[in-house]
Predict the 3D structure of the following.
Amino acid sequence: MAYGKDIYSNILEEYDEKRALAERKADAFNDALCSRSPEYAAITKRLSGIGVRLLLAGRSADKEAKIADIRRETEELRARRIEILESLGYKEEDADVHYECAECSDTGYTDNGICICLKRRLAEKQLEASGLGTLCRRCGFDNFSLKYYNDTPETRAHMEKVLEAAKKYAAGFDPAESRSLLFIGGTGLGKTHICAAIAKEVAYGGSTVLYTGAQAMFNDFSNERFRNGYAASELTDKYFSVDLLIIDDLGAEAINQFSVSCLYDLINTRLVKGKPVIINTNFDGAALREKYADRITSRLFGEYAVFPFKGKDIRAQKLMDI
Ligand SMILES: [Zn+2]
């Protein structure tokens, strides 16, 4: 799945605007200097014509001598321009255009392709659109604290391994190769935090991520069925096409035959296509088996890497933090 067309074109518009703004600011600065110093104005005008003069000189018979003359004059003009700027209390770079990104001059592209700044902006927008904006601002690997897992040494050691595995998964995420994961454990054990941290890193790496509560996803399937019969539509295509799908809180939703069949279809289709999913559930294996058909749980426990989350409810522990 590529970035949504809207996201991409909105960001490019954003880039056009910030580039134009930076250029307007530099123009305004130079205009003000030109009105303060006629010599600065004359030099600026002369320098702006250099490109054309070089082009014409390149076509003349004695081009080497002419080009050398123009280059010498350019050096002198630039040096004089700096003197004037300094006499007015400025530095040479004050007259430059100040782009937010020096790598791409706010175009979003460099000679090597898409600039890192545009990649980050796309990831941010994508996370906002995928419902992870707020969560990802609060939750990353950097602020996942293991201090809440100290109830036993075994719990602590186990959760250290889970955290390491999650970091490794996120850093090496490949939409065609990465496995699907099943995070199991009671409420408040950090499953959502780890999911958000993975999502953030995966999005910054350039892959698309969609985060959804199980109930909201089933609502989409059910609304689509109501509107279109069983035809595919934009309401649910995203669950099949996104690089990484994260389903939060599986098991909390009301289920019926239809939702079980949608879930099976989704899990199976993504497995067949090799597209990873991360599922969070507060249910244990037995409860999941009781709630969903065997054909679903056999895939979850047979094909997904299962990570049990251990410990005591972090939210309750945080309340006691002073
Ligand atoms: Zn850039």
